[in-house]
Amino acid sequence: MLPSLSGLAALGLAVFSSLVSGTILQNGQVREINFPNTRTDPSAHTFKTYPANASEISYKGRWDSKHVSWWSAPGIKFGYTGQTVAITFGNLTSNGVLVGYRIAGLDWIFTNITAGATHLLVSPETPGATLTGPINPWTFELRVTNWAYGVQIKSVHVAPGERLIKLPDYGRRIEVIGDSLSAGMYTSYEGLSSWAYGLGAGLGNTEYTVTGYPGICAADQDCWGNPRGQVHQWFYTSDTSSRAYEIHGDKAEPWDFAKHPAADIVVINIGTNDQNSHNNVSAAAYIDALTKIIQGVHGKWPSAQVIVMSLWLGFYQSGNTYYPNAPDGFVREILDMVKGFNSDAYLSSPTIYDGVTKKSTKLRIKKKEKPFVHYFNTSGILQHNDIGPQWHPTDVGAIKVASHLQQFIQRTFGWEFYATGPEVYHETLYWNDEPNY
Ligand SMILES: *[C@@H]1O[C@H](CO)[C@@H](O)[C@H](O)[C@H]1NC(C)=O
Ligand SMILES: *[C@@H]1O[C@H](CO)[C@@H](O)[C@H](O)[C@H]1NC(C)=O
Ligand SMILES: *[C@@H]1O[C@H](CO)[C@@H](O)[C@H](O)[C@H]1NC(C)=O
Ligand SMILES: *[C@@H]1O[C@H](CO)[C@@H](O)[C@H](O)[C@H]1NC(C)=O
Ligand SMILES: *[C@@H]1O[C@H](CO)[C@@H](O)[C@H](O)[C@H]1NC(C)=O
C-alpha cells in the first residue's frame, strides 16, 4: 500500500502553485494568529542606517551576493543599542512573506513583509523590548519561515545615536541537508517549526543551516518539478524554487565554502522523493548521488561528522493497528553505503566530490582516516499520529525527531545542551487546566 504517492505529489505541486498567504490552517480550521503590522513609512522616522553588507550583521544559512535568502529558515542576527530596529527589504523579497523575529531569548514574533518596504520590528512598544539583561546587549534575530520564499535585506536601521553590534558566532555548527521533511513542510510555522530548526535551536549555542527543499531528490534529475537534485544543488547558494530561476535564471551562484565556516556535524535526510516511484530513480542512482553528497561534504569540510538518517515513509492502518509504509525504503542500500564509508579500504584512500566541477578525486593520504559517517535509525521515533494527512511530521512529530537527534548527538559526540530556556517551538504550549475529568 503506497498512499504516500498522492500525498507526496501534493508536496511538489503546492510549492509552485501557492501564493504567499498569511493564513495558517490547522486541522482544516483557521488558526487564530496575531501578527502585528510592522510596515512603516521611513520618512516618518530619523534613523541611523547600516547597509546590508555591514559587518555588524551576521547572515545565518545561505544568502547570495545580493543579500537574498535561500532554502529553509535563513536569518540574520545582530546586537543593538536603543529600542528601535527597522529593516528595509529589497524588491527581491517575496511580497507578503512571513518572517519570525525575536529579541534575546524571548518568543518569536511573526509578521509579513512587503517587498521594497521598511518594517519597524522593534520599538519600545514591542513586547519585551525594554527588558534589560541578562542578555546584554539586546540581540535581534530574524528568520524566514518558508523555504520557497525569501527576503532581500537592503538596510538595517536603529535610532539616532544608537548602533548595531557584531555578535560572535557560536563555536559549533550543524547543517541539515534534506527535502520537505527537513524544510518543515506542513508544520505550523514551516521552517521555524521543523525538526531541522529544532535540532539547531534546541541544542543551543549552535549555528545551523537547513539546506532542505520540498520534493527534491538526491539524484540530479527533475523530481516533482525541482529541476536539479541535491547532489548538484547543495553546492549552490540558491535552492530549486521558481523564485531562484526568476531571480538568476540558470546562473546560480556556487556556494563559497571557503568564505564560510565549516559545519561540525552534517545531518542528511534525503531519499524519500528518490524512492517514490513517481520520480523513477533507481536504487543505484540514488546511492550514487547520496555517496557523492557525502564525499562532497567531506571534500568541503574534511573534519565534519556526517549523520545519515534512515527514511520514514508514513504509516498505514492494517485492521486494528498501524504499520510503517515501506519500512525498507532503501534501508539495506543506505546501510551498505555507510559500511562502505567506514571500511578500511575507503578510509585508507577516501574520495571527495565537487558538485560544481562534477569531479571526484581520490585522496592519497599517509594515515588512514577515522570513520566519519554515522547511521541514525529513525524506526520507532514517529508513530502514525505524528504524521499529518499531508504525509509530513506534525509539530509534535518534528519535536520528537529533533529531540532524538539531540540525544544521539550528545551521546555520540559529547555535545552539551545549552538551550535550557529560550523559546524553541512557537505555540506548542498545550496544557490542561482541569485536573478532574
Ligand atoms: C499578512 O499577509 C496577508 C496575506 O497577504 C494579509 O491578508 C494580511 O492582512 C497581512 N497582515 C498584516 C498584519 O499585514
Ligand atoms: C559594502 O558595499 C559598499 C558598496 O559596494 C562598499 O563600498 C563597502 O566597502 C562595503 N562594506 C563592507 C563592510 O563590505
Ligand atoms: C529594485 O531595486 C533596485 C535597487 O534598489 C532598483 O534599481 C530597481 O529599479 C528596483 N526594481 C523594481 C522593479 O522596483
Ligand atoms: C524509468 O527508468 C527506466 C530505466 O532508466 C526506463 O527504462 C523507464 O522507461 C523509465 N520510466 C519512466 C516512466 O520514465
Ligand atoms: C532500526 O530500529 C528498528 C526498531 O528498533 C529495528 O527493528 C531495526 O533492526 C533497526 N535497524 C538497524 C539497521 O539497526
Folded structure, characterized:
- Residues 176-329 form the SGNH hydrolase-type esterase domain.
- Keywords: Hydrolase, Signal.
- Residues 1-22 form the signal peptide.
- This is SGNH hydrolase-type esterase domain-containing protein.
- With 437 residues, this protein is an alpha+beta fold.
- The chain has two domains: 36-165, Galactose-binding domain-like (Jelly Rolls, Sandwich), CATH 2.60.120; 172-413, Rossmann fold.
- Helix content is 21%, strand content 25%.
- Strands 5, 6, 8, 9, 11 and 13 form a six-stranded antiparallel β-sheet that branches. A five-stranded antiparallel β-sheet has the order 3-10-7-12-4, with no helix packed on it.
- A hairpin with a 5-residue loop joins β8 and β9.
- The longest helix has 19 residues, at 395-413.
- The radius of gyration is 22 Å and the shape is globular.
- The two termini are 39 Å apart.
- Bound molecules: 2-acetamido-2-deoxy-beta-D-glucopyranose (5 copies).
- One 2-acetamido-2-deoxy-beta-D-glucopyranose binds at residues 51, 53, 55.
Give structural attributes.
437 residues; alpha+beta; Jelly Rolls; Rossmann fold; 6-stranded antiparallel beta sheet; 5-stranded antiparallel beta sheet; 9 helices; globular; binds 2-acetamido-2-deoxy-beta-D-glucopyranose
Structural class: alpha+beta
Radius of gyration: 22 Å
CATH architecture of the largest domain: 3-Layer(aba) Sandwich
Bound molecules: 2-acetamido-2-deoxy-beta-D-glucopyranose
Sequence stretches where pLDDT stays below 50 over 5 or more residues? 1-19
Number of domains: 2
Supply the CATH class of the largest domain. Answer: Alpha Beta
Alpha carbon gap, first and last residue: 39 Å
Number of helices: 9
Instruction: Please give the number of β-strands.
Output: 22
Strand content: 15-25%
Q: Output mean pLDDT.
A: 93
Largest sheet: 6 strands, antiparallel
Approximate shape:
globular
Question: Quick one: CATH superfamily of the largest domain?
Answer: SGNH hydrolase
CATH topology of the largest domain: Rossmann fold
Helix content: 10-25%
